[in-house]
Design brief:
The complex is a heterodimer of chains A (236) and B (118). With 236 residues, chain A is α/β, with parallel strands linked by helices. Chain A has a single domain, classed as Spore Coat Polysaccharide Biosynthesis Protein SpsA, Chain A, CATH 3.90.550. Chain A has 8 helices and 7 strands. In chain A, strands 3-2-1-4-6-5-7 form a 7-stranded mixed beta sheet, with helices on both faces. In chain A, α3 crosses α6, α5 packs parallel to α7 and α5 packs parallel to α8. The two termini of chain A are 27 Å apart. Chain B is built from 4 helices and no strands. Chain B starts with a helix and ends in an 8-residue tail after the last helix. In chain B, α1 packs antiparallel against α2. Chain B is mainly alpha-helical and 118 residues long. Chain B has one domain. Classes of the chains: A alpha/beta (236), B mainly alpha (118).
């Protein structure tokens, strides 16, 4: 990875007609040296038209797969096209383009296979507001991950992450379809990959709402905890 | 066990076999997934032909009436079949997801929405 690494930003988007163009303009203005691809997860609004009209590199999923399947498509595309690094960058404007270099650093110097942009390492960076209940949820998941892998990861639900070539192949093959953020952390750790958390700025959601409503949060917790405790170390 | 219940079970099992074999012959059910239904029908047939078998088994389980044991066995069978179906569905969901992803990448490349750049 000595001479400039090839970096791909994976931008999952589902019905993001209001924010997708802004996000993509931000990306192309701030990170000219990196490629990006929008994964249009079977949007039913004007997302596809906007992407096509503006010649934004994108893959239109012929059916809606959910965030896990959409991001995995990005990893498959990254693997097919021999990218050195893939970064998940959400299409709703939550992730901060300025934090990308920080996120890339541990991958490029080889100290980690995966870098997670964390809201909790340097709290001053983020004006991200989350409810007390949500913080308890994230903390609980963090504890379960600690129990399972003996590693402490603070921001377990952050989707803002960079992964190296080995992790790209790993996730291209197997990536949780349901609530993949915490699960992929555990499966990566169990497979012996190194993860580092770096401080990242995150913005409050501009348009659209979180994929997890209050009603679903109990279901979410049970689902994630069950997935974490049943994950197995890969053989061989 | 009542003789009439025995006869009903045997007739039902035979009808089941006929339907199953017809479905296999016309390839409406794959042989692989028909096996579980084959064994289910077989159990019904055995119960019909040897009703005393269940009286014997019930000496272990001690249901008040033997018919409860039979119903219990049937419910257990259905649960096993339903679970097996859930396993199939899960496997197929993974395969379908993979197909959707691969086809979507290919289609988008062909439309030049995305592709190798210099």
């Amino acid at each position: 990875m000595a001479n400039s690494p090839r970096v791909l930003l994976i931008v999952p988007a589902f019905n993001e007609e209001k924010s997708i163009l802004t996000t993509c303009r931000f990306i192309s203005e701030h990170t000219k040296k990196y490629d990006y691809v929008v994964i249009n997860d079977g949007s039913t609004d004007r997302t596809e038209e906007i992407l096509t009209e503006n010649h934004i590199p994108h893959i239109r999923l012929i059916e809606n797969l959910g965030i896990g399947g959409a991001v995995q498509t990005g990893y498959k595309y990254a693997e097919l096209n021999n990218y050195d690094v893939a970064i998940q960058f959400d299409g709703d404007g939550q992730h901060d383009i300025g934090s990308i270099e920080t996120l890339l650093a541990p991958i490029l110097d080889g100290s980690a296979n995966m870098a997670i942009g964390s809201r909790f390492i340097d709290k001053s960076l983020s004006n991200f507001k989350s409810s007390a209940l949500r913080r308890v949820g994230i903390k609980t998941i963090s504890n379960f991950i600690k129990l399972k892998t003996r590693r402490r990861i603070f921001d377990t639900t952050s989707g803002f992450r960079a992964v190296d070539r080995a992790m790209i192949s790993f996730f291209a093959k197997d990536y949780s379809a349901e609530y993949p953020e915490p699960i992929s952390i555990v499966s990566a750790l169990l497979a012996g990959f190194k993860i580092s958390e770096v401080p990242a700025k995150m913005n409050p959601r501009e348009n659209g709402k979180s994929s997890i409503s209050k009603l679903k949060s109990i279901y979410y917790m049970i689902n994630v905890i069950l997935q974490i405790i049943t994950l197995r170390r890969p053989r061989g | 066990m009542d003789n009439r219940l025995s006869i009903a079970l045997i007739l039902f099992a035979i009808a089941w076999f006929v339907v199953l074999i017809a479905a296999i012959r016309t390839r409406r059910i794959s042989i692989r997934y028909s096996m579980i239904w084959f064994f289910a029908a077989l159990i019904l047939l055995v119960v019909g032909v040897f009703p005393n078998l269940f009286d014997l088994i019930n000496q272990i389980f001690k249901f008040a009436v033997v018919s409860n044991l039979i119903i219990g066995v049937l419910i257990t069978m259905l649960m096993i079949i339903t679970f097996a179906l859930t396993l199939f569905v899960t496997k197929q969901k993974k395969q379908i997801d993979n197909l959707i992803q691969e086809i979507s990448i290919l289609k988008s490349e062909r439309k030049k929405d995305v592709g190798p750049k210099k």
